[in-house]
User: Fold LysR family transcriptional regulator from Pandoraea fibrosis.
Amino acid sequence: MAHQRIPSLKLLMGFEAAARHGNFSRAADELHVTQSAISHQVQQLEEEVGQPLFRRVGRGVELTVAGEVLRRSVQRSVGTLRSGLDRIATYLDPGLVVIAAPAELLHGWLSPRIDQLLVRHPALCPMLSTDESARFIDETDIDIAIADRPLQQAGLMEVPFLKDEWVVVANDALAARLTDLPAARHPEHASLICLEESFTRDDTAALFRHQLAPFRKHVIYDDERLLLDAALRGRGIACVSRLVADESLTQGRLRVLADYPRIEGTTWWVSRVAGEPRSPVVTDVFEWLIASAQ
Assistant:
């Protein structure tokens, strides 16, 4: 079955205005055209759909049954279109800078520093994206990308950014209870909370096979942010990314336990388009990120 050709947007917008006002003259005023133009658009639309859409009532018009069906569909479509245009307008903000990074890094390291960045650049509108599939900066409208390896895309400036490490932590109260105890007795006084992937990661697996093996596993998580929250609640000791826990460590809500090794973690890279970016503020944010990392 062949689909009927969709009338032009111009005809549909003229019809929608006339249907909403119940008057061709007021519809013409809204759209800044003549009344005869609206009448012609409606007539052409009626010819295309094959049935009348309005009937005359006094000095105005009212919809036929077919007109009412079309009005509902057109108004829903116009509403969707206007919503989409409003969303696009966000991307026209001259202060917009889109930064893509893994959620845990945004949550633990960057988000707590955003206020500092906004003080430096009051007109800035940062958009923080956790879309880790954004591997091509200029093709996905990403201004700055933070990743665990260089993107190796032509035309990018890429530099090592942050060096992470795995540390064993506890909240302040639990750390205080463990401070005067030898590490061999820690399993008697604390449980272990951990990430599922920590058992198999090349950099952390040995820690769980040896120093942390005597601990009873209390809860296992698959998201570092959940693990961090549990550690802050005192549910046990945890091996966490220092960058994810950065704010909590700085505030003293978490403490690194000195009796356990600190293990080298991910080196994060930051990238942007080489040369002049689309806006000078992109360069400012890029340089601020590097300076903050140091």
Observations:
- Residues 65-90 form the longest helix (26 residues).
- The chain has twelve helices and eleven strands.
- The CA atoms of residues 79 and 85 lie 10 Å apart.
- The first strand starts at residue 54 and ends at 57.
